[in-house]
Amino acid sequence: MADSTPDGVERRLPTDEARELLALTRDIARREIAPRAAEEEAAGRFPRELFALLSRSGLLGLPYDPAYGGGGQPYEVYLQVLEELAAARLTVGLGVSVHSLSCHALARYGTDEQRAAHLPAMLGGGLLGAYCLSEPNAGSDAASLRTRAVRDGDRGDWVIDGTKAWITHGGIADFCTVMARTGDAGARGVTAFLVPGDAPGLSAAPPERKMGMKGSPTAQLHLDAVRVPDERRLGAEGQGFAIALDALDSGRLGIAACAVGLGQAALDEAVGYAKERRQFGRPIADFQGLRFLLADMATQVEAGRALYLEAARLRDEGRPFGRCAAMAKLFCTDAAMRITTDAVQVLGGYGYTADFPVERYLREAKMLQIVEGTNQIQRVVIARHLVGPESR
C-alpha cells in the first residue's frame, strides 16, 4: 500500500505497524528535531537527549530481534525511518545509522549469552555506540590496521593498544565495537571486541574541526592497555575483518538512506523558495530553466530511494545485496551532492548564507561521499562483483 507523507513522498510500507512507525518518526522529527537543527549545528551541539527519546520510542534498535529489545523491522522499514530522521537533521539520522552499525557484530556474531547480557541495553536502554575500524594510516585500506590485542593473564583477558580515527560519537559513546589485530598482518589477523565506553585506558582526542555536521562529534580514540575479558570477544579469533565488512554492507544502506533524506530536504526547500520568490513580476518557479533544474533534482531523489529500497528488499529476503548496497551508497551520496549544490543555486545569493539551510545541506552532503567507504571504494566493490578481483 502506498502512503503519501506530508512532504509528498510516496512510501510503500508493508504493514500497519510500519506505517505507525513512520508516523511516529515524522512527529518526532517535526516537533523535536527540525526546529533546533540549525541552531545546534551552528553551535556544534550533539543532541544526546534526542537519542534518549529515540531509544525510549523504540527507534534505536529497529532492525534487530525483539527478544533482545529490538524492533524486529525489515531493513525496508528501518531505512525509511532513517531517511525521515536525516531529512530533519543529518546528525540524528547518521547517528542512528552508526549506532545500528555498532550493534551489528554482537547481534549477528555474538553468542546467546553475549546477546542476552548486552543487547537489551544497547538497543533500548539509552546507550549510544561507536564503530571503530579506521585508523590514521588505515582508512580505505582497513585491513592494514595496527591496533593490537594480546592475551594476558590466566583468564585469557585481552589488552588492546592503538589509535582509531574518524570515529563518529568518539568520546561520547557508551560502547565501542573495536577491530584489533590479534594475528599476522592482513585481513585474517583481525578480531572484533565489544569495549565499554568508560573502560580504563580508553580516551578521546579533541573532536575534529569539520566542514559540516559540526553537531556530530568525530574524534580519534586512543586505547592504552585497555583490558577486555575474552567474554567480550565477538566471533572467532581472526574473523573480525569479515565481521567488519559484513556490517559495512548494511551500514552503506544507512548512509544511502540518509543521503536521500538530505536530498529530499534540499529539494523541499528549493521548491518552497521557488514558489515564493518573485522576479520580473512572477514566481521564479515559472521559469523553464529553474523548473527543469527542480525536475532533475526530484528525479535523482526518487531514483536514489528506489535503489536503496531494492537493496534493502534483497537483504530482507536473505539474498546477496552487497553489490546493490555499494551502488546505492555511490549513487545516493553523489546525488545528494548534486541536489544540494543545485538547491543553493535555486536560492541564489540567499542560498550561500546561513539564513537558509541549503548551505548547511551542501556542506553535509560532501561528508556522505566519504564515510563508510569512499565512493571510489564503492566503484572498486561494484567492479569486483562485475569482473572479479584485480590481477596482482
Structural description of this entry:
51% of the residues lie in helices and 16% in strands. The protein is built from 10 helices and 12 strands. The chain has helices spanning 16-43, 48-56, 75-88, 90-109, 112-124, 240-276, 288-316, 322-347, 358-368, 375-387; strands at 2-4, 10-12, 129-132, 148-152, 157-168, 175-181, 190-196, 202-204, 218-228, 233-234, 278-279, 282-283. The chain has a 4-stranded mixed beta sheet. A 4-stranded antiparallel beta sheet has the order 4-5-9-8, with no helix packed on it. Helix 4 runs antiparallel to helix 6.
Helix content: 40-55%
Overall body shape = globular
Helix/strand class: alpha+beta
Q: How many E-type strands? A: 12
- Residue-averaged pLDDT: 95
Largest beta sheet: strand ordering:
3-6-7-10
Task: Give the count of helical stretches.
Answer: 10
Q: What is the alpha-carbon Rg in Å?
A: 21 Å
Oligomer: single chain
> Could you list the spans in which at least 5 consecutive residues all have pLDDT below 50?
1-6
Q: Biggest sheet, in brief? A: 4 strands, mixed
Q: Output the helix-strand order.
A: EEHHHHHEEEEEEEEHEEHHHH
Distance between the termini: 50 Å
Beta-strand content estimate: 15-25%
